[in-house]
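Teaching soon. Invent one.


***
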Amino acid sequence: MRAFMAGVAALALTATPASAQEAAEQPSVEAQIGGGGRPVGANWARSPVIAQHGMAATAHPLATQIALDVLKDGGNAVDAAIAANAALGLMEPTGNGIGGDLFAIIYDPATGELHGINGSGRSPANQTLDQLLEKLDGAEALPPYGALPITVPGTVDAWFAMHERFGKRSMADNLAPTVRYAREGHPIAPVIGMYLARALRAYSAREDEFDFSNARKVWFADGAAPEVGEIFTNPDLADTLETIGRDGRDAFYDSAMTDGMVDYLQAQGSAFTRADFADHNSEWVEPACVGYKDGYELCELPPNSQGFAALQMVNILKNVDLSQWQRGSAEALHYMVEAKRLAYADVARFYADPAFAALPEELLTDAYGADRFELIDPAKATPEFAPGQIEIAPELEGEGDTTYLTVVDGDGMMVSLIQSNYRGMGGGLVAPGTGFMFQDRGELFSLDPAHPNAYEPAKRPFHTIIPAFVKKDGKPFMTLGLMGGGMQPQGHVQVLVNIVDYGMNLQEAGDAARFNHDGGRQPTEALEGPAADPLGTLYVEPGISEETIEQLRTMGHKVEVVDNGIMFGGYQAIARDPDTGVLTGATEMRKDGQAAGY
């Protein structure tokens, strides 16, 4: 995070702590008492959820219940995932909404195939980098607010693409539960309430620089954030979703509603036209899978997302037996952190919209992973890792606010879905009468014209949000996701290591203390010149022992302890036994979520 904070700290609207010092200002209510005991398993984790006929795990209990209701009413996992995602856009607006983008991996039991969908939007087709730079008026990076970082929202189109291919119930039926909750109200959950309050403080500090008036009317009409337990309604969003459910995809992208959004954005300085929305399309892509050990394979989506970073980490870590050390040891953490830093050196150099820059094929090979592994010094942190020698300034790794959900139905269809507005609740702009905020994902473009991720017309920016899927012995095994900017690939790998190398169950694997390494070269920085923060900072949770922390510092790592869980993501997972069909689910103790089945 240091690389980002050095450049645009005054502009950032994220509602997430940027340092251990800020986290320390929020004392834990559990300081006077420890956890209880358990008859089985780790004392710091509750039991995973076990069911047979269907299961959902989301960041809000009501969204989980909506997904189960859809399954019980004859819908499949895709229908239920769409319904739950719509609900989360209402109930968890601090993490997602229809103003953002969506990525998903779907396992289809009818064909035995994995399908990936890239539902990310593009920049305005009629705006060049030079024209954008003129609007930035000397700024070295895109801001996280206002019209300039907005890209076309891709979520609604992705819903309809998924539904057309796999859905069973009508879209109107899938969106109806959220329409009802938006009109009748729902109570604000604890963690979401905290994020809403922080978001209001952050946006209010800069609202003289962008139009925050419509967002205030939607979420903060009384001058304050909704309190925990307060019944919240969003009638504008109800109308928007009802129209989309009734009239289809074009109601959002090619209609009078589109004209209203475009007119508003143009008034705020955007170059978007109706054609930018009408021409938008999601893309079906092929997930890539990399073997780890003991028959486990991790599967991720290709760029413009950062999913392949997790696969590169796996290819590096398969060259060492982590289980020879305890899970919380300095040795195990050192290898995982250095693998992350090596992978992200390549992320910063090569990852971009593949329509504009091809990804080197060597990145996911075993041989390249072994070569990168040889760069790790077992005894100390390497001051800086360069990207691999492969021919071909805002920060990637800020805690982008995101939601991840997963649904598995009784037939074995498995959906791993992630959706986000990026930083904060988005860019702060809400078109009148729509009830949702536009994303600020374009903040992740580089302004260096030589960079593969450089801003160009009709281009998708580098993306942080990634769903994951795990195979075991070639068979579908588990959906997996973990929210939060650059935390996501390293979080996927930490959970996989917990399960494979240390034998944890799904809930233990998510509840175990995590690290979040932040820093290094960024995909928004210029290709030439030194990285702003080459070593970065290793943030750890209190479950990492003081002995381990001191040993890591002796090895050269810059370590800080953060005790509020915010920057370490939000995890959900469902595993399916291929022989019995029994489902095991887990959710995130750091969020308000729920895993449930029937």
About this structure: Residues 1 and 518 are 5 Å apart (CA to CA). The radius of gyration is 22 Å. The domain at 288-397+485-569 is CATH 1.10.246.130 (Serum Albumin; Chain A, Domain 1). The chain has 19 helices and 19 strands.
